[in-house]
Every structure is written in structure tokens, then in C-alpha cells.
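Quick one: co-fold with zinc ion.
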Amino acid sequence: MTDAAPQPVFLKDYTPFGFLVDQVELNVHLHPTATRVRAKIAFRPNPAARDRRFFLHGEDLTLISAAIDGTPVTPEITPEGLSCPVPEAPFTWEAEVEIAPAENTALEGLYMSNGMYCTQCEAEGFRKITFYPDRPDVMAPFRVRIDGDLPVLLSNGNPVAQGAGWAEWNDPWPKPSYLFALVAGELVATSDRFTTSEGREVALNVWVRPADQGKADYALDSLIRSMKWDEEVYGRAYDLDVFNIVAVDDFNMGAMENKGLNVFNSRYVLASPETATDRDYENIERIIAHEYFHNWTGDRITCRDWFQLSLKEGLTVFRDSQFSADMRSAAVKRIEDVMTLRARQFREDNGPLAHPVRPESYAEINNFYTATVYEKGAEVIGMVRRLVGPEGYAKALDLYFARHDGQACTIEDWLQVFEEATGRDLTRFKRWYSQAGTPRVKVTEDFKDGTYTLHLEQKTPPTPGQDEKLPQVIPLALGLLSPNGDEVLPTTVIELTEARQEAVFEGLAAKPVPSLLRGFSAPVILERDSTPEERAFLLAHDTDPFNKWEAGRSLAREVLIAMVTEDAAPAPAWLDALAAVVRDEALDPAFRALALRLPGEDELAEALADRGAVPDPLAIHAARERAKTAVARHLDPLWAGLYAQMACPGPYSPGAADAGRRALRLAALGYMARLDGGARAQAHFSAADNMTDEIGALSVLLETGGADEALDRFARRWGHDRLVMDKWFGLQATLAAPERAVAVTRALTEHADFTWKNPNRFRAVIGGFSANAAGFHDASGAGYDLVADWLIRLDAVNPQTAARMSTAFETWARYDEGRREKAQAALERIAAREGLSRDMGEMVGRLLAAGRIAA
Ligand code: PHE
Ligand code: ZN
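Sure, here it is.
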């Protein structure tokens, strides 16, 4: 094990900082290995605090000089920061430090990427730039002067003045240090203007490297639509004269909401039809909106401490989902969100890394930017909205913005505005923030004399550190269908609050078919004995689009599980039901494409483990292959017609309608390839005039064999484009056949273009391979070793991304003893490394601890 187990921080230990900051002035003199940062900070005792020790965070800083009110001081310095005696009255702190951005490979603080300087300060990166109370509840206006020999020099707020080699910025809005940003480089802008509802003229710029010029139009367009939407739907207008977005190639996450200066992973900005897929466009639109929406939910109102992270992230994800639903198809967006929630958050909640939406302790906060904090956090907000209704929600949000503008808040503040605005008591509801684990709702029913009764029982399984669970408040949306397919009860929301409850419906002519958890009204697992006939019935008749899809999905899941465990043939009822959906031209092509997607291997492994079986990754993979071939054969008469019908006439457009047609067409292509040996897919690949079709056809060829030549052609065509090549690397690792996956991935890591210090490239290959369930869980343990070796290597360079990728091992404890032993050995090998980061130390410790219990 690591020498010292990382010291956790606890929510219950929160105390305010002893001082308030009235003003920050920074002067940054850029140099790759010797950047000088001079800070002048006006402090004043905080009347609300008792502890007056003056401690400033600071890491990897060389202190050149420090002074208080102009008098030099010699602070006491540790690896975490400095302390110093200070006056009991307002004072000015001045310090000069030196840092080396070119040597910063962790991509946190000030670093360099392709010759450009940029910063990443969330959560605790500002302390690598200067000494500061680097905590979100210390908010201050910042004034920044940048000196550097580069044409574009940016920071937060409004531009004040600039000349050759310098620029000055002023951000009047008090903000925590994690929202500080600075960018300097040779950049070009795609620009527009926006006039806010309050009459403010805002200059909008999306900055990219010159070679990427022309690929920022969609990001800019998404920004304008986001600004308009937030005014119309939430009444929130933008509050500075400029809004800058910068694309960088080396970035640990998706993007960052720095005040007035959003910094983005270039994959979520750059797009052209030839290089970006429909999915890329959708992600750009969503993430541009997400970061923009943070301006109010995150920047103007921020978090008191990092335990409250979901206050900004859950809410902002909820807001960006609403936006995407408005821009595209609400039904398709909901289905996609639930698929991701189940694949990532349910998996997390059911494993060794389970934690509440508001964690109570952490060793490294970077490890808590999770699906639980983000996606489950967003679901919790969706539930509040369902409980209080759209008007109550709107009233509560108005109160939230009015009351807390300029503050650093807690989940309590957030719930309080709902209680006041709607009169509803949310005491019990608050458990969603403190209790980890996915609740299971078990449903049985009876019908007698026209009365239909649902018996509902809820239970949340134990999670690490939480054995006993209390009942949750669960809004359960449901409808009832009569046996002839008519809806006899339209969508109604009932509230579960107890461990056991009943819902009674009277005056029914016949026993209805229930459509439960419509729209996925709560993040729970529904347990109910249902027949394939009933599922097929709902797939055909349900008026709720989510549940219509869900019926098909659960039917497919059952069929696949029977294929794995009983070696059963794929049920004809399923194949017929699927054919009916695909044939139904009244349905959105995007919906039909989703219906044709089979549950993934990890989802099936989870379902098997849930039934007490030990999943066999190879058997699951093989069953899924057989099922796909059966679908291909059974629906054979449909494919050619569908393929022809779904062609998009006219030039490429990334809109939802065309994207849906392409998705359905590519699904047809994939099934056809199982019958024609890939001939049509080869032709499709050669004829493609956009990346969606090109990569779609390449994926089909990779899955069905015969991709070698196409892979070569692709690499020759796109070798110069790093974002496109990420796809090339990622697909091969993800789609390699189980027995070849380790070798294919190893070869990819030996490729000259495997620039592993770039997080996108590392994620493509190592993350891609981890998503190849049958390959990663190879019985030899070679997959575990391969990933462990690379995690160790990356950890020394970039702990944050390395630790994040360790979630590949999240499910190790569900497998057979042989695999468990090998996975445990790989994890222990990581844990034993000298100099392991706090990030990785915490992750591996949690992965091992819970796994050992289960083993
Ligand atoms: N706050 C960012 C978001 O919008 C995520 C992020 C966290 C980015 C930490 C970088 C570092 O979700
Ligand atoms: Zn966010």
C-alpha cells in the first residue's frame, strides 16, 4: 500500500475562512519555464469567522518575495501552503512567485498545450498559480494584467486595455479562485454579437488555433441559442461585455465554465461535416450550453465547499438536458440520458465507488466529478420539479437567483427556496442527497371487481459505509392501458414515501396493463414480473415514448439473458415486435434506431450478477453476436428498403432530423453486413461525404471483419487530424474481437501517434479498451495488466486523468474467482507503487476495499 493513506476532508468540519478578500490584482509575466506571478490581495477579517489563522494554499510555487502592507515578511511554508502572522485589521498581501507552465503535465494550474498557455483551476488548481485561500466560499473581484509575447492574451471579465505584449482584464463579479482563467497564444476567433434582453451588447468569440479556423461555427451558433434559451426559459441574461470560448487540445475534462472565459477540450468545439459526427455536434451543443448556463448556476451562485458540487453540476446538467430536449427530440434525449445514467451512474452506485450525490468525505475532490454528482444530481432536480410542478419550480428558481446571487451556497439553501416558494416539506426528499445506492421498487398487483391495486415496496441496497437505508421519496409516473391497447388512465404521478405502499384504481372494466415509471420519473430500478407478451404489448401500444422504448429494451434484455444462461434461441416474439417497430413509419427514425440497439455487454453482465449469477464475458459477447445475426436475418426483407429510404438528400446538416435518418440507415447497414459480408458497408465507407457515415461504416466493418484496408485508408486520409484520429484509435480498441483485443490495444499503444500524455488520446485507447468488456476481462488477466501498466505510467504525469480511468476496474468483484484474483493483483500492483498520487491512492483503495468484502 501507499505509505500514508490520504487524509480525508469531512463535510461536517466546514468552517468559514478567517478573512474576506475585497480585491485581487494579478500580474502574470509569461515564460515557459519561469513565469512570474505577482499578486496583490486586499484582505479584511471575516466577522462571521472565529478562526483567524492566516493560511494560504500554495503548491509547487517558488516564493520570490512576500509583504504585508508593504513590509517584507517571511512566511512559514509547507508543501500545502503558507502561514504568517497578520494584523487584526484590513491589510494588503503581496507576493511574487515563479512557476514553470511548460513542465506542468498534470494540466492543472497554468500549463502549456501546443505552444499556448492556459489554465485549469477547478477544483484546486489556483494554488499552483499563486498563494491564495483556494476555496470556493472566498469570492472576490479580479483584475489581471498579462505580459507575454503572444498575440492573444485573455482573462476573465471585460478587457480594460491592451498593447503589444500585454493586456489588462477586469472581472467585476466576485468569484472564487476556481473560476479564474488565463489564456495566451496564437489564436484566431470566430465572432458574433448578442444583445441581451437587458440591452447589453456582448461580443462573442470562439478562439481556436489557426489550423482549426473555420471549425467553430457550430459552437458559436450553439452559444447564441443557449444565451437566448436561458433568457426565455430561466429569465437569466448574460452580464459582461464579452464572452470568450477557447479550444485547447490537452484538457482533462470536457470543458470549464471560467467566468467570461470558458475553456474547452477542443473535441467539444471543433466541427466540420467531414471531421465531426452527429454525436459530436450534439455534444458540442450540449456542452457549450452547459458551460454557458454555469454563468448563473455556478458562477453568480457558487458552492460553499466542494461537498456541494452537485448544487452547480446537478442543476446545470438538468438545465442543459432541458435545452437539448427543446432543441431536438425530447423523447430521444430522455432515452439517451437514461441509457447513460444506467451505464455509468447505476454501475457506480452498485459498486465499490458508490457515494451520495453530496459526499460526506473525500481525500481528493477531483475523484468526485462523477456520474452520481452530475447525472444522478440532475435526476434529483428532475424529481423535485415533478413533485412541485413546473410553476412551483419556476417560482423556486426565481427565489434562488434573487436571494443567493453573489453567494456561495449549500444544498440546504437550494431546498429551502423550494420549501418557501411551494410550501412543500422536503425533509424526507433530502435523503436523495445523503443516501447512496439505487433504490429498487418492487411491484406486484391484483385485480378484483373492477379494482386494480399496485403493491409497491422500495428498498435501497447497502453501499460502502452505508448499511442501513431509509425509504426515499419517489415520484412514480404511471398510466394504465386496457387490453385492447387504449389508455384508460393517462399519466398520473403517485408519490412513494414509505417502504411499503399501495395504489388503488377503481372502476376498471378489465385488468389493465400498467405502464410504470413513465419518462423514467425517478432514478430507480423497477422490479416486476412481466411476460414477453406484455412487454411486446407495451412496445406496440404505450403512449409514453420512453416506456415504449423501455418495453423493447427490457424484452431484449430478457431474451439475451436467456440466450446466455440457457443457450436459448432468440425469442420470435421479440424479433416480430422489433420488426413492427422498425416498419412503423409513424415513429421518429431516431427512435427506431435506438430500438435496434441491443443492451450492451456490461448491462447484461450487471443484470446477470443481479440475479446471483457469475457473468461470463465471453458468453455474453457470443450471445449478443448471435442475437444481432438473428435480427439481421429476421428483418432481412426490411434492410434494403430502409437503407434506401433513409438516405439524406442535400448537403449535410447536423440537425436532429437528418441525424436520426443517418442513425437508422447505419443501423440497417450494420445488420446488412451480417448477411452480405460487408459489401455494402465497404461501398458506404468509400462514398461517405461526412464523418458520421465514414466512421459509421468503419465501425460496421470492424464489427463484422474486413476493416483492414478501410482502416489504412482512413489513417492516410486523417493522419493529420488529431480529433479524427482519436476516433480511429478508440474504435479499434473498443470493437476488437475479444480474443484479439489485448493484442490490438497493445499494438495501438506502440503506434507512433499514441501521444499518451494527451488525455483524449489516452482515453481513446485505454478507455476504449476498458469499454470492450470481453477484451478487458480476458480470462488471462492480460487486459487488467495492460490497463494497470498504463495507469501507473500516466499517474506519474497526470494523476487526475489516470485516477478517473481506474474506474475500468469498478466491476471487478462481480466476476469469477480466477478473474477476481487477477484484477485484485493488478490493483494491488498499482497501490504498491511508490509516489502514487493522492488521486490514484484514494481510487485504488476504494476499489480494493469494497471488492475484498464482496470476495
Ligand atoms: N466544471 C466543469 C463542468 O462544467 C468540469 C470540470 C471539473 C472541468 C474539473 C475541469 C476540472 O462540468
Ligand atoms: Zn458543469
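If it helps, The pocket of zinc ion (ligand 2) is lined by residues 290, 294, 313, 316 (CB under 6 Å).
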